[in-house]
Records
---
Amino acid sequence: MPLKGNLLVGQSGGPTAVINSSLVGVIEEALKHPEIEAIYGCVHGVQGLLREEIVDLRKEKPGTLKRLKTTPSAALGSCRYKLKADDPERLLQVLQAHNIRYLLYIGGNDSAETGHLVGDLAHEKGYELRVMGVPKTVDNDLEYTDHCPGYGSVARFIAAAAMDAGKDSEAIGVVDNVKIIETMGRNAGWITAAAALGKREERDAPHLICLPEVPFEPDRFLSAVQNAYDRLGYCVVSACEGLRDAEGKEVVASKRAIDTDAFGHRQLGGVGDFLCDLIATNLKIKARYDKPGTIQRMSSALASKVDLEEAYLVGKAAVRSAVQGVDGQMVTLVRESADPYRCTTGLAPLEKVAAAEKKLPPDFISPDGTFVTQAFLDYARPLVGGLPKYARLEMHPIEKKLS
Amino acid sequence: MPLKGNLLVGQSGGPTAVINSSLVGVIEEALKHPEIEAIYGCVHGVQGLLREEIVDLRKEKPGTLKRLKTTPSAALGSCRYKLKADDPERLLQVLQAHNIRYLLYIGGNDSAETGHLVGDLAHEKGYELRVMGVPKTVDNDLEYTDHCPGYGSVARFIAAAAMDAGKDSEAIGVVDNVKIIETMGRNAGWITAAAALGKREERDAPHLICLPEVPFEPDRFLSAVQNAYDRLGYCVVSACEGLRDAEGKEVVASKRAIDTDAFGHRQLGGVGDFLCDLIATNLKIKARYDKPGTIQRMSSALASKVDLEEAYLVGKAAVRSAVQGVDGQMVTLVRESADPYRCTTGLAPLEKVAAAEKKLPPDFISPDGTFVTQAFLDYARPLVGGLPKYARLEMHPIEKKLS
């Protein structure tokens, strides 16, 4: 028997270039099912839900959804909130007060945890609620899914940034010798690795990739930089903000107390400047850094078409599953075929998703730890789509006539 | 009587997304004129020319030029080199040795100075040489031209970055309260100002623009940030890396000796981190920064079509003028009509261009110094082309049912 009632959707965690595409997928699918009455959104994720800040999405203007699909960031507002002991109880009260029977939460593993806790409590109390997770994270660190919506776009941005910054260094390497691109990522190097996706030949950037999966050793780093610089006259490094030393301690992070979040994470950032200092001091060669920061996860100009489309599909699939009776699951992406690339959707329990974190597997990292492998490139290239082919002059020298 | 001989083209200064479009313009126009025999390029600008490092551009493959037009950065290699006393003499020897009669130098005011000195010496020595400057600089700080090729594209990147980072802050403002976008620019705020080009309403970023033309005063800055934050719950600042205090001293610059260039300029960068510290310490609100660095001047995905086309045109116009007998001039862009936007080319003496630097005029800066005016927006918008229109939900709240 169909479960009649209201649907509530929320967005959580770091915004992405495509998380609104998932929101539109949820809304458009919900509109098709008569058992779904009101379509609500909660403002700033569970933080707004705790305060009963709910908006009526059926009242939005018709043209808004179409434009929203390609608008980056989380239109409902996002949050980074760790549930307190009493919170699930309160959340359930709010859901019950508004006869919400379908809870769709778009986010990463913290969001899966939230959904799981609320769903469990509902079962316990005998309130019929179907909770579905919609995957979203630029970090690409969710297990049980081939990849995460949001990753293809940030990967495309970083691939293009490395191509562009590489062209810059190649032209001006006589002046600025080493360039660091500081990329996002706390524990997993997926974004950092994406810098390699536009590389076609040795001169192309990046020449070195520093992943959080590989303990950072200053001496090894410096000799790799020196080596590339000696060979090419310039060197471009993609370095993860979450680099860690052999003891697993972050190499750089904010020392400001204000910069520790609800999950106890210190704000990262500063790896670029740190590495530039290291290079200037030890190698006496000039280095500068680019830190695209939040721009990398948010660029609509560089959003991947595949990513936008898949983000939309997982939103739709989550609603469809919930209507069919599925509960407590996150929609996953399943690669059916590598070439031609084809993905379909699957399901994984929220509880399992919440507890896991997917790092770059060893076979995606080169044996010496300074680059990615062909296996990684094969995995990631279909997710970002085509990249431009830049020209390079052949540079036929003419004969010198002077001494 | 036509001047028969060889043409040499070089690229200088910071690369841009469109400087290769100018190079293609020069080559394609040169190919049309029978009096131009060899078409040469010098590698890394005058630095390569001093070493007689010259390449034959007629030997490049046919398909290369087409792709080169949209390839960012300087394909011949660039330099940042201050001429020494003996250098013009040596440069002239090289030009004479290779029967170069047309010297085309693509660059900013330092390049204009180089062209002017070499041209003067050639006249003095009775060697017939026509020197033409092709304008290029993301900084948009050349006088005598409405704007500079390269600027429209970096402006488009920064406008999009502010739109995207603004959307991010709007969604996650509950967590990351203030965002600084650190933009390029040593003395002129053209790039920093471009952050305003995508702003349509008060909530849109940026909320504050810190220009090098306006002396930086920490107290005034902090109260403007607090004000925006109190109103909106978040705040995005576009801040120039070249910010200066009331005494004209750079607020932040590298302290590393290695980071001082041939012109005595210290490498800039660090304003973002500096402002974040200032905010966290004094306002106790969380701030982070994005520093797109060299990516901003190099993004092919965000290159402006108008900019690409104009860069091509000034390259062609320079060759055409030289063939017609013009010498010692830089091609300029002249705005014939504001709406619809239409530009044609003009000429200005290299000597004058070399000596001048164009800052943001007072009527482009708001009276309180914290934003740009409509006059600036009207000036810059046609140069960057259309920007996306992002959607925003209307957010119709439903009635609360709980306490």
---
Amino acid sequence: MLNRVPPLVPPPGGADGPVVDALRFRDGMSRVAASVHVVTTDGPAGRAGFTATAVAPVTDSPASLLVCIDAAGRSARALAANGVFCVNTLAVSDRALAEAFAGHSGLSGEARFSAGRWGSLATGAPALETSLVAFDCRLVEARLVATHYVVIGAVVGVRLGPATTALAYRERGYHGL
Amino acid sequence: MLNRVPPLVPPPGGADGPVVDALRFRDGMSRVAASVHVVTTDGPAGRAGFTATAVAPVTDSPASLLVCIDAAGRSARALAANGVFCVNTLAVSDRALAEAFAGHSGLSGEARFSAGRWGSLATGAPALETSLVAFDCRLVEARLVATHYVVIGAVVGVRLGPATTALAYRERGYHGL
């Protein structure tokens, strides 16, 4: 079971004060390379999915990862209501899926799943058959930080796909790694 | 100011239940590519630093990022006590620093800073002069999730360094991107 204690560390300097502006932060973040994932969900609130790079492992005891997700979007509501999600790490050959699930091809909701071969693991969240790895997760916590949720999932299934070139994002463009 | 509300979403399936074992999770995570960072701190608890790949942007309003950090380590205690940290995104030419701050060269604490050119931005946390980008952060929250803290920082400074090749980690090895 994940510990769910209150914050242990009060901010010594206080939580408020000037921060850099959004543009400066985004310019800085463009220097950071990341894998590209499609995060999906399915259940009573329906099927939904979105492209994410803000994914990180939290601990392996118990196996847990986190995803940051725009709190205002339809995907966040569906994911929270369904209580399950699947993180699909994309191969470079699935770049078109990254663009579709980022909304760049004008598709939303269910229609985004018209491309790609989709199955599922334990939770029922869509798992992409061509993903490098799929992490099937049970939602443990969604913590609101201003505009985004930090969603923590307990990893109930891992499927390793082909060990091919990963799709990475850096300097506002896609790369293979 | 960052919202610091309790979890909004109770886990529909409950927080408990079987998860994949640590080895399986790590095998899965080896497929995920990530930038390599050295996260540093300085202040009353002294100077410390560690290599991290579990770094993600949270929101740009206000500019915030997160770092996952082993709760048992000296760096976590120093970071929490100092209340500030700096995320230094490494260029491929600083691979030796990644290894030193991961503890692979047998150095700990202050001694890790014997290599590299170090300055600081606003908070006093060490900023690497050759980093692709340095994010100077005020600690906002450190939330314990089992063995690790999810540390959220408000970004009070961003310094863009040379736009050279990034150091990335994937399949348990270093790569340039």
